[in-house]
Design goal:
35% of the residues lie in helices and 23% in strands. By secondary structure, it is of the alpha+beta class. The strands form three sheets. Strands 1, 2, 3, 4, 5, 6, 14, 15 and 16 form a nine-stranded mixed beta sheet that branches. Strands 7, 9, 10, 12 and 13 form a five-stranded antiparallel beta sheet that branches. Strands 8-11 form a two-stranded antiparallel ribbon. A hairpin with a 5-residue loop joins strand 1 and strand 2. It is globular, with a radius of gyration of 23 Å. Bound molecules: (2S)-amino(hydroxy)ethanoic acid and manganese (II) ion (2 copies).
């Protein structure tokens, strides 16, 4: 079964991690380099020409029957969150590789370009989609100047990896790309709750990512009376509960504070400062923006009452993105062709597809996430669902081949 090979490859790549005992693979790390070398070997064995582009994306080209034919992009990201599962991102790259392998050397009336994006999660620079932004020309000098917690900029990271940030424009996909298909685990519970194997994404929720800094006065934990404190942690904690409450009371809104860093970070010191991440998502951009404004206002009110100051830094305001209706219909048809009922759905998770969709007709095929578990080592995928997705992928390519042959015959 080809599905077993897809799954075993995802499992094999787990070893390329920056943290022994968990999967953590971030932008251009040594672990990422090792992962890319392995995937490159698999791509070359499948008959692809492979290069690493100036943004660190792994690009495999499987030529079509005609040198000037257009291309279909398939791919996902190779980086992970800390303590990740084995399938988020990587599965989409392995799916594309398996589809090319299943052609057994047959050349289609279009080429297939397989992409392993270098960075989608935003872990190292707190800015996601570095790889896919390069493909749509959304990487400028300011973006390249963004620094990580060690003060290394994206441009410096690229140079240290042996890449040339001045060539970042060469990463852009041309208009010869007819479409982009991203396979991805759903990372939610919908398909499982409907007992369905595959879904097709009709839209991806927009997301705001920000960093909040609460500043009070660091004081001795033993000698400072409670009523004389300006405790940054207590103030932020009150705000975090408000974040949760607002999301619980707002249909379709999710809001998360996933990362808290206190300063000076000692148990016997009343914290003088706290940095908190904020991640807010909704299908409707206006609802999301309203929610963010409300949360910023609540932070200011809490800070004012507690004698703190609070500052917010917007890291990303990514609009909600609709997938290409035609390509999504083709994906739905392909899934029906293999005798399955597809679920048309909105993705709460962000994906490279939402960036590619800015300049290429794009769609996504979701595979069921058992237990809805993701961004966790217990993330898994069912072998039969992978087999189904491969069959749907082959049907999808057959549809595109028929379309291309029809166009070329006129
Ligand atoms: O955070 C997300 O939505 C995705 O996993 N990068
Ligand atoms: Mn993810
Ligand atoms: Mn992902």
């Amino acid at each position: 079964m080809q599905a077993e090979k897809v799954i075993s490859r995802c499992r094999y790549l787990e070893q390329f991690t920056e943290e022994p005992g968990q999967i953590k693979r971030t932008f251009l790390s040594p672990a990422m380099r090792d992962c890319m070398q392995t995937v490159q070997g698999w791509m070359e064995a499948a008959g692809m020409e492979v290069l690493t582009d100036a943004a660190g994306n792994l690009r495999g080209h499987y030529a079509g029957a005609h040198p000037t034919s257009h291309s279909v992009l398939i791919g996902s990201h190779l980086d992970t969150v800390p303590n990740s599962g084995a399938f988020d991102g990587v599965l989409g790259v392995m799916m594309g590789l398996a589809l090319v392998e299943s052609l057994n050397g047959e050349r289609l009336p279009f080429s297939i370009d397989l992409v392993g994006f270098s960075e989608e999660e935003g872990v190292r620079f707190h800015l996601p989609f570095i790889g896919s932004r390069a493909l749509v020309g959304r990487v400028d000098a300011d973006f390249l100047a963004t620094k990580d917690s060690d003060g290394v900029s994206i441009a410096q990271a690229l140079t240290s990896f042996g890449l040339d940030p001045l060539k970042i424009e060469d990463c852009q996909v041309g208009d010869a790309v007819a479409g982009f298909l991203e396979f991805h685990i759903e990372q939610g519970i919908l398909l499982e709750s409907e007992d369905l194997s595959l879904g097709v994404v009709k839209a991806i929720a927009g997301q705001t990512r920000a960093e909040m800094t609460f500043t009070g006065r660091a004081r001795h934990a033993g000698t400072t009376p409670m009523r004389l404190r300006n405790d940054a942690v207590a103030g932020a904690a009150e705000w975090v509960v408000e974040v949760e409450r607002l999301a619980l009371d707002s249909p379709g809104l999710v809001a998360t504070v996933g990362d808290l860093r206190t300063h000076p970070g000692a148990g016997n010191v009343v914290a003088g400062q706290l940095h908190a991440s904020l991640d807010v998502r909704h299908e409707e951009d206006s609802v999301r923006h309203q929610a963010v404004d409300t949360l910023l206002a609540r932070a200011a009110a809490i800070a004012q009452r507690r004698g703190l100051t609070v500052a917010s830094k917007m890291l990303m305001d990514q609009p909600a993105v609709a997938m290409d209706a035609g390509l999504s219909a083709l994906a739905m048809e392909a899934i029906r062709n293999i005798g399955l009922q597809p679920l048309s759905m909105v993705s709460g998770a962000g994906h490279d597809a939402m960036i590619l969709a800015e300049c290429v007709p794009t769609t996504m095929i979701f595979l069921r996430s058992p237990g809805g578990i993701s961004h966790h080592p217990d993330e898994s995928v069912r072998s039969q669902d992978v087999e189904n997705a491969l069959a749907a992928g082959r049907a999808f390519l057959r549809h595109l081949t028929q379309q291309a042959n029809k166009e070329q015959s006129v």
